Amino acid sequence: MAAGDPLPPDIADAIERARPRLAPLASPLVFFSTVGSTNDAAASIAIEGAVVVAEAQTAGRGRRGRTWFSPSGSGLYVSTVLAPTRARVDPRRATTLLTLTAGVAIAEGVEASTGVDVDLKWPNDLYVSGRKLAGILAEAVRDVVVLGYGINLTAAALPSDLRDRATSLEGQTGLAPDRGRVLVETLAALAVRYGDLLAGRFDAILDAWRVRAPAAIGARVTWTAASTVQSGVTAGVDEDGALLVKTDAGLQRIVGGEVKWS
Ligand code: BTN
């Protein structure tokens, strides 16, 4: 396991104070000033509860092979190792619902630490006023899942081509965010929601997700399936978190891939 760098004092203080609320997460907690991708560093640990945090990533990645812009200090780059297959109730469903669960938790943590109201877009993008604030990347590694999230902290995190589509906590509040607080509140919320997931409290997770995802009902979407562009109107998510879309050909169930919202 990579040793990492010393924790910066603001993060060390915040973690120390929140430690009892973080279990089973942040054990171990590894920090890097710079790393390729926190998801790769977490995958090399692969112990349930491990958390990797970086100040900068040189190869941060998003979903569908995209780059996640990760300059020093402008965002929070975090990955945690989770094991939904050890859920006490229906491990298959717990694994399927992991990314929606993470979206709910990170939205709750952002709100608790900053007061910024966050919406979710299926499956788990975090939006504020129609602009993306944070993204989540879940990757299966052997018998665990590495769940990485990136939150834009300051406007400097946004290159010009993203500026119209993305936002940051600083952009929303006009204040420099307390990254230690955002880190511990997102991890604490993730610890609670992960507990819900392992205990089979799936309806509580789905209810919380639905409340935060107004676009999951009644929004026009397009997506590509079998090389054909399809479109329809969203009709909620089912019990496994699949997006339901009404189309001329009937109700379609989307489980992955890229959905474009209009
Ligand atoms: C997306 O919206 O496309 C997902 C973005 C996920 C970015 C985070 S930053 C921390 C972790 N490490 C990575 O390389 N990616 C995720």
Rg estimate, integer Å: 18 Å
Order of strands across the main sheet: 1-2-3-7-6-5-4
**Largest sheet properties:** 7 strands, mixed
CATH architecture level-2 label of the largest domain? 2-Layer Sandwich
Characterise this structure.
The chain is an alpha+beta fold. It has two domains: 9-211, BirA Bifunctional Protein, domain 2 (2-Layer Sandwich), CATH 3.30.930.10; 216-261, SH3 type barrels (Roll), CATH 2.30.30.100. Helix content is 31%, strand content 31%. The chain has helices at residues 9-22, 38-45, 91-96, 98-114, 169-173, 179-198, 202-212, and strands at 29-35, 51-57, 75-82, 119-121, 125-128, 131-141, 144-152, 217-225, 228-237, 243-247, 250-254, 259-261. The protein has a seven-stranded mixed sheet, with helices on both faces. It is globular. The N and C termini lie far apart (44 Å). The relative contact order is 0.15. The mean pLDDT is 94. Bound molecules: biotin. Residues 37-39, 57, 60-63, 66, 68, 77-79, 125, 135-137, 148-150 line the site of biotin.
